[in-house]
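User: Second chain of the day. Same drill as before.
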Amino acid sequence: MDTPVVVNNVTGAAGSTGMRHIAEADPDGYTIGVMGLHAVSQSFMNPQAPSLDAFEPVVYVSDDPGALQISADTGIGTLEEYVAAMQDDPMALMNGNDPQGGNSFVFAEVIPEALGIEMMKLPYPGHAPTVTALLTGEVQTATLPIPPILEHALAGTVNVLGVAAEERHPQLPDVPTFKEQGYDVVVNDFVMLVAPSGLPDDVRATLEEGLLATLESEAFTAAADKNGMMLRPLGAEAAAAELAAQEETVYPLLERRGLVAEELLRN
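Assistant: Same format as last time:
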């Protein structure tokens, strides 16, 4: 597209500040941003967060399934051993995860329900602090997606007990899914590039074509593989369908736990 790209990391309110920055920008194609599970969760939990209608999907980048990790120092190496330990003493192992609404928070709500255990949770402001807490022993488990923990899993300092996806993660082919181990747990974060709603058709088409070409390039694919991303490039129409599916999955999950804001409850 021959246009310079300025990256602006906007923090605050569990990602809602950055999403509002996108939603309130002019729909001219010069402001796009990254959307993930946190934006879907926050749209139901936080009345101040922008609704999903404020965004227009441009391309779907990758799946980012949830997973359960445990410090190798615990001596626990399988999901079966973990479940037994937690059933014996639910207070024995502390889990690190995002604050309410983040992807690893959602994973930490879904996984113990499926396993039939209670999980003690300690929130951290992002994946990096959670990884640090796991490596230093401040917590013993985490419910992170694979990319932030991949190097430690490959090094053997962290054991990944299960991946919440339909298929095994390509970077950790020896780690079984929860389904393979008898638990129906599929919970997926995602990476999607979105623009403000109202994007002209020709602008969207230009962005879609250029971004898909980048996502499918050899250089990007190699970098994504190295960083543990599960690439699944999709165009705007398919990305919109994926977002709608996420919405229908996440809302009942949050509603069952009383986490949907009262004014955002559906009739």
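Residues 236-256 form the longest helix (21 residues).

User: Great, on to the next one.
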